[in-house]
Amino acid sequence: MNDQKISEAVIRRLPQYDRYLRELERLGITRISSGELGKRMGLTASQIRQDINCFGALGQQGYGYNVQELKSYIEQILGLSEPHDMVIVGAGNLGRAVCNYPGFLRRGITPVALFDRNESLKGIKVGELTVQSMEEFIPFLKENPASIGVIATPRQAAQEVADLMVEGGVRAIWNFAPVDLKLPPDVAVNNVHLTDSLLVLTYRLRVISDRKNGEP
Amino acid sequence: MNDQKISEAVIRRLPQYDRYLRELERLGITRISSGELGKRMGLTASQIRQDINCFGALGQQGYGYNVQELKSYIEQILGLSEPHDMVIVGAGNLGRAVCNYPGFLRRGITPVALFDRNESLKGIKVGELTVQSMEEFIPFLKENPASIGVIATPRQAAQEVADLMVEGGVRAIWNFAPVDLKLPPDVAVNNVHLTDSLLVLTYRLRVISDRKNGEP
């Protein structure tokens, strides 16, 4: 796979492709044209063809894409060919939401443990998991290596938790704390900034309101 | 404001600019060059200049940007010049996380009410709010118009809740349910797909692993 060729914008669209292709599979659709897929995804046919050419030619002109084949290929690019175990630190509402979120398991990503430094939460059940104390964090990871770590703590604790994750062999961090983590270059990270997402919404609302009020 | 000129990629960066500019303000920095701002944000100086030119020239060659001025301007573009009230439907972990999330209030976005159709949750305190029954939803909105509605329900309930929000005068929907809502064109929407964000992480992890294993 030539990853150099794939732009950030395409990377961000890959999970969308996966989502739509899974939906097509569920509907029993086995082939789809770039035009039809584009219509569903709100993209042009040529955009779809460009994206898919980015990661290797799969379609045949006039025949469309094989849904199952394209989905497998995209999931391989997304690193879903092998299963992932995921540990979560922070048993507040966000950490609990991640534990219970449907859709991760379907992709082979399994929440395996939940930790919190608040000792009063120790032993509480969250979905299938039981909250463990932070003292058990490194020993747990030694026994049960996990590739993904989720940081669902307040921002003040995030860097310390990230350091512990790296020490415990976690190779990818999904960070919900509003802070830029300092990490070794071989540890992957993706930050979820909920506020950013809300402000994109207020932007769109402002554009619609201006249009209604006749402003440019 | 000429919104036609602003691309999706720039829109997605606007909240980041806001975040970094707020941080600069906090640090007491009043002017910043495109190079320095770029370094902090992980963008090139020319990218920064391009972005900012997109929404109107503010910098003076050689003098950098006035932090406070640029922040105000970006917040105006983001629709933050006026305050927003926000109602939340779904008092599960995600809905509760949104109610308690720090950072919204600072931007003038206030969670004002939380609803759930599960009657057994009625009356429960979540942060400053008390869970209300769905029967109170439309009457509440009539008395207390809110511009933003948050859908934090299972996917099956999402469209029905969206319809109620539109009926109640909500003009922007922040949707956490993994479903594409059907909405009138004058209602803004932004979908949060948590799985998409996690798959961008597994993508990055796969790229790093391939590189380590000497694959292209």
What is the overall pLDDT average of chain A?
A: 92
Q: What proportion strand of chain A?
A: 15-25%
Which structural class is indicated by helix and strand composition of chain A? alpha/beta
Distance between the termini of chain A: 45 Å
The strands making up the biggest β-sheet of chain A line up spatially as: 5-6-4-3-7-8-9
Supply the number of structural domains of chain A: 2
Task: Summarize the largest interface: chains and residue counts.
Answer: A-B, 62 and 62 residues
- The radius of gyration computed from the alpha-carbon positions of chain A, rounded to a whole number of angstroms, is 21 Å
Specify the CATH homologous superfamily of the largest domain in chain A. Answer: NAD(P)-binding Rossmann-like Domain
Oligomeric state of the chains in view: homodimer
State the major sheet of chain A.
Answer: 7 strands, mixed
Order of helices and strands of chain A: HEHHEHEHEEEHEHEEH
What is the CATH C-level name of the largest domain in chain A?
Alpha Beta
The stretches of 5 or more residues of chain A where confidence is low (pLDDT under 50) are none
User: Count of DSSP E strands of chain A?
Assistant: 9
Write the layout of secondary structure elements.
The structure is a homodimer of 216-residue chains.
Chain A: H1 8-26, E1 31-32, H2 34-41, H3 45-54, E2 65-66, H4 67-77, E3 84-89, H5 93-100, E4 109-116, E5 125-126, E6 129-133, H6 137-143, E7 148-151, H7 155-167, E8 172-175, E9 188-191, H8 194-212
Parallel strand pairs in A: 3-4, 3-7, 4-6, 7-8, 8-9
Antiparallel strand pairs in A: 1-2, 5-6
Helix pairs in contact in A: 1-4, 2-3
